[in-house]
Amino acid sequence: MALSIFRNGVKLGKNLQKLSVLRCSVENLRSDTGKNAASALTCTQYSCLLAPKLPNNYIASRGFSSRHPKRNLERKYQSCSESDSDLEEWLGRRGNSDFWRRKMRTFHAILDLNKDGVISFEDFKLLADGFVDLGHLSDKHTNEFYQVIQDLWEKQFGEVSAYNLVPVEKFLDNMHHVLNDKMLVRRAHSFLPYLFKAVDKDKSGEITVQEFKIFFNILGLKEEDAILAFRAIDSNGDGKISSKEFVKHGRDFFLTEDQDKISKYFWGPLVDH
User: Fold this and answer.
1) DSSP H helices in the chain
2) Is a pLDDT exceeding 70 seen at residue 218?
């Protein structure tokens, strides 16, 4: 009887010692887990298991995302060519020249597909359809393109509705607001990379004058105007325009009030007034 009590006491002491060691280990693991979110500590009454967490890219690959897709697109195509200080120099002071307003009237006329003097989201979408129907965009880029188009419309002109019509003066006012808003101006050109991908038939990352003619054809512009615009934008005369050049000149068309900039030719001849 005494021997049995002694053995149980020794066994109890060893268990208490193990429990103390386990508690120490748990505290250390919890501390490490707090520092490194890559692991998660799971404990039961008797044991603890240090298990790796699933990384975000694995979660996304299973059809779940921890980030909003629109925000991803916005970040993806925000301009990195202008610093905040550059923007601050002219925010609130751009878009008052007759030249800039003439350019915006030109773009409004391009978007106004049925030439009734107003544009709607349907005009936006039909123009996008023209580029998608070329068949050169992947499914991923097609979906992104339509999302960018809708996001731009909602940010600049409001709800997507058949009754939301934008005449030229309202368009000028909205574009003036975009030009002088730090966040909006960084997203104003987010659709341009998709236009380039759509006409880059051989996916070379460069477009030729023949591919640029396709671009103008979808816009409803003349072939001879496409040739003149291409020659102006192809400043080094190598017969090719890169994606970077395309986006830069397309973006500068909306931003600059410098009449000497070749970007004024990007969307074809300017309207008379």
Assistant:
1) 2-35, 56-61, 69-76, 84-90, 98-111, 121-132, 139-157, 168-179, 182-187, 192-199, 209-219, 223-233, 243-255
2) yes
167, containing H or E segment? strand 166-167
| DSSP tag of 59 | H
Percent of the chain with pLDDT over 90: 56
Distances in Å between the Cα of 231 and the Cα atoms of 25, 104, 107, 156, 160 are 71, 22, 20, 32, 37
Q: Which residue has the higher pLDDT, 262 or 34?
A: 262
Alpha-carbon distance of 199 to 39, in angstroms, equals 47
Q: Quick one: tokens of 256?
A: 């600059």
- Nearest Cα neighbor of 188 from 174, 198, 199 is 174
Place of tokens 């359809």: 129
pLDDT digits (tens, 9 = 90+) for 221-241: 999 999 999 999 998 889 999
Residue pair 30/41 in contact by the 8 Å Cβ criterion:
yes
Contact 97, 164 (CB under 8 A): no
